[in-house]
Amino acid sequence: MVDYRKEGLVAIFEVNNPPVNSLSKNVRQGFVDGLSKATNDPEVKAVIIIGKGRTFIAGANIKDFGKPMEELMSSSPSLIDIGNMLEESEKPIICAIHGAGLGGGLELCLFSHYRLAVKSARVGFPEVNLGILPAAAGTQRLPRLVDITVAMDIISSGRHVAAPEALKYGILDQIVEGDLLKESIKFAHSVIGKPLEPRRLRNLACKSILYCISVIHQFCLKSVRNAADLSYEAGLMMENTYFKYLITGFQSFALRYSFFAERTARKWQLPSGANAANTKPLNVQTTGIIGAGTMGTGIAVSLLRAGYPVILVEQNQEFLDKGVDMIRNILKDGVSRRLMTEDRMKQCLKALKASVDLKHLANVDLVIEAVYENISLKQEIFKKLDYICKPSALLCSNTSSIDIDMNVYGKETSAETVATIMDFGKKIGKVSILVKSCHLFVANRMHGCFQTEAKFILEEGALPDEVDRILEDFGMPMGPFKVSDLAGIDISCRIQHEVAKQHDIELTLQTRFFRGERYSSLSNRLYELGRLGRKTGKGWYRYEKPGGKNAIPDNDIKDVIRIHCKELGIEQRQISTQEILERCLYSAINEGFKIIEEGVVDKPEDIDVIWWYGFGFPRYMGGPMFYASQTGLKKVYDRVCYYHKNFPYSSHWVPSDLLRRLSTAPNPVPITQWKTVLHSKL
Ligand SMILES: CCCCCCCCCCCCCC(=O)CC(=O)SCCNC(=O)CCNC(=O)[C@H](O)C(C)(C)COP(=O)(O)OP(=O)(O)OC[C@H]1O[C@@H](n2cnc3c(N)ncnc32)[C@H](O)[C@@H]1OP(=O)(O)O
Ligand SMILES: NC(=O)C1=CN([C@@H]2O[C@H](COP(=O)(O)OP(=O)(O)OC[C@H]3O[C@@H](n4cnc5c(N)ncnc54)[C@H](O)[C@@H]3O)[C@@H](O)[C@H]2O)C=CC1
């Protein structure tokens, strides 16, 4: 709703629709009612629109977009109706923005005559992240207010523009210091009686378009271009046509799922009943990191950037110096890319203390261990930390595969610890997902199936660039073999040898089975040839130089595969695109269902979020579990059974029972309800 009150000559519309004042039907109706009162009240000379609570207006209610098109289009009053009423008002309308003015919220501002904001406010058109365009005249009005290249950037990037930048472009008229409402009332008095015609954007001409023709290729850009080429009314009509097309498409559907999935994933809960809402995080002020390698230095940079002091501990001075240099270089790079100022970099470096003595961690609130992936080394360090650190300190481990219950949440991890870590993750700008301990955890466990199948496919007849191209066409940012070259083929080989050693097994180039599972020694062959990936200039591809970035398909690799298969008696054949996609994706998806079944994650959305951030799975496909739900679980299950029959020595093809049960449900079970099937008789 919209609360209406008067302060002297000024009517105040306070949008009151928690949590983020989205433009639901009752809010839109509130604007119509408020405008009618303000127009008919001769005492009122100006109107201020302000948001109650944490934000101004976060845009349309995204849940409305799931409604049938006819209902959506006929839902009155529409935002454009309200906008027109605001623009036509003979009394100046002033928007007073705090928090965020996004999407429809910014469009309302552009229909209003003046825009003020506090310094911390942000405005923007994030519609592209939902697979749509700003269709309440956003593409027609913004280019009438700001330079067209700025409008294109804001609309096509979806980024949030900070108030000082928005002021520079002319989107805002003023940044307000002090109390927003009081200052806005003062401002309102200063504009009462001034002519409104120059403030009505529909009457302004759009600025030159000449220098941005080459980038007009998406709907948003086409629509912005229309602002320059067509009349305001014709531009609006086209904007509406594009909107209708986009909102009914798969990408927008998947992106809207993604928006809510990310928020659902934040809502962790433990079997004890403790959850994000009822558990208070502890206060973390000081931090320590052990190990200044790839991960330790990266984590240190994230903590320093977020304003936490860090004590970095290494095993000797040489490694410590290297680590500090690495951190300095990452921060410097941030300065050269204008991600931070020189002053901020200096503050970060001042907050970094380096040591070779664990005892310096005695007073920190939180310690992150990031030493080599070696269980006895990690255990030895935690034993020492038990003595050194204060009792309230949180001890965290950064491991990629070791299944140690004490590492992640398990019997010994308190709800406060979980709450603190989830909160801490958000504060350092990361998205944290709560998972239970299991071999390889969620990301590596699922991705392992994907990578393993990709290698089997090479043995059976495909080439690395062919497999990569098919997965990149699907939407992955890099195919599995380019990823492997980037990470270094030696890393995975060493891990495999280490695991085999633990079982008293020696892996050779002739090994075809390991612990009852099909095994491919193809990467070991590359390892022995010194083809370690980008760093040696050769791996699954060749590169222009060691450390080069351009992956060039290499004829030599064909010979390596051919010899490998001949020696091991593996027959090669033509493999279809469908098979390549299915074997990589469905093997991982089947594992994902097992992960849900075992309660390692709480809900499928958690897995999808992990895949966007961990592996760059395209958000516009929703994530592997959403993709499966849209493909049809019956089809996925049938194909998993088919591959299980054909490849009986790969346990990742043993069909998940949850997948089987969901696939036989009389009606498709929505992804948000899958968990309920675990406890039902289905
Ligand atoms: C008006 C439609 C009527 C139909 C008429 C048909 C005519 C056709 C033309 C249609 C023209 C409409 C054009 C239009 O208006 C387009 C839009 O505005 S699309 C929406 C654009 N806005 C966004 O994408 C903003 C999304 N929100 C955010 O970025 C963040 O939430 C925000 C920065 C505002 C706050 O962040 P934070 O403090 O971290 O809070 P959370 O993100 O956790 O959010 C809290 C809570 O609120 C829910 N939520 C947030 N935004 C919306 C939203 N816009 N709609 C619905 N719900 C929203 C969020 O999911 C959280 O709730 P949970 O229960 O925790 O999930
Ligand atoms: N590299 C990656 O992409 C990822 C790695 N991980 C995990 O993070 C951990 C660290 O990995 P990386 O940073 O890649 O390893 P790394 O080899 O780059 O760094 C490890 C660092 O720990 C230091 N170290 C060893 N023993 C120590 C001790 N007793 N005291 C202090 N420092 C000591 C080493 O000198 C080295 O600098 C591993 O457990 C790894 O599995 C997790 C996710 C991803």
* Residue share in β-strands: 5-15%
> If strands are numbered along the chain, what order do they take across the biggest sheet?
1-2-3-4-6-9
Beginning-to-end CA distance, first to last residue: 42 Å
Report the average pLDDT across residues.
93
**CATH level-two architecture of the largest domain:** Alpha-Beta Complex
Number of helices, where a helix is a run of at least 4 consecutive DSSP H or I residues:
28
- Provide the CATH top-level class of the largest domain: Alpha Beta
Structural class: alpha/beta
Shape: globular
Task: Count every beta strand, where a strand is a DSSP E run of 2 or more residues.
Answer: 16
Tell me the CATH superfamily of the largest domain: 2-enoyl-CoA Hydratase, Chain A, domain 1
The set of bound ligands, ions and cofactors reads: ligand LJ3UWUTL, 1,4-dihydronicotinamide adenine dinucleotide
CATH T-level topology of the largest domain: 2-enoyl-CoA Hydratase, Chain A, domain 1
Outline the biggest β-sheet: 6 strands, mixed
Family: In the C-terminal section; belongs to the 3-hydroxyacyl-CoA dehydrogenase family.
GO molecular function, one term: (3S)-3-hydroxyacyl-CoA dehydrogenase (NAD+) activity
Subcellular location: Peroxisome
Protein name: Peroxisomal bifunctional enzyme
Task: Walk me through this protein's architecture.
By secondary structure, this protein is of the alpha/beta class. The chain has 4 domains: 2-248, Alpha-Beta Complex (2-enoyl-CoA Hydratase, Chain A, domain 1), CATH 3.90.226.10; 287-428, 3-Layer(aba) Sandwich (Rossmann fold); 462-568, N-(1-d-carboxylethyl)-l-norvaline Dehydrogenase, domain 2 (Orthogonal Bundle), CATH 1.10.1040; 577-679, N-(1-d-carboxylethyl)-l-norvaline Dehydrogenase, domain 2 (Orthogonal Bundle). It is built from 28 helices and 16 strands. The strands form 4 sheets. It has a 6-stranded mixed β-sheet with strand order 1-2-3-4-6-9, sandwiched between helices. The protein has a 5-stranded parallel β-sheet with strand order 12-11-10-13-14, with helices on both faces. The chain has a 3-stranded mixed β-sheet with strand order 5-7-8. Strand 1 (2-7) and strand 2 (10-15) form a beta hairpin. The longest helix has 21 residues, at 577-597. The chain is globular and about 90 Å long. The two termini are 42 Å apart. The model is unreliable at 210-216 (pLDDT under 50). Ligand LJ3UWUTL binds next to helix 2, strand 5 and helix 11. Monomer. Pathway: Lipid metabolism; fatty acid beta-oxidation.
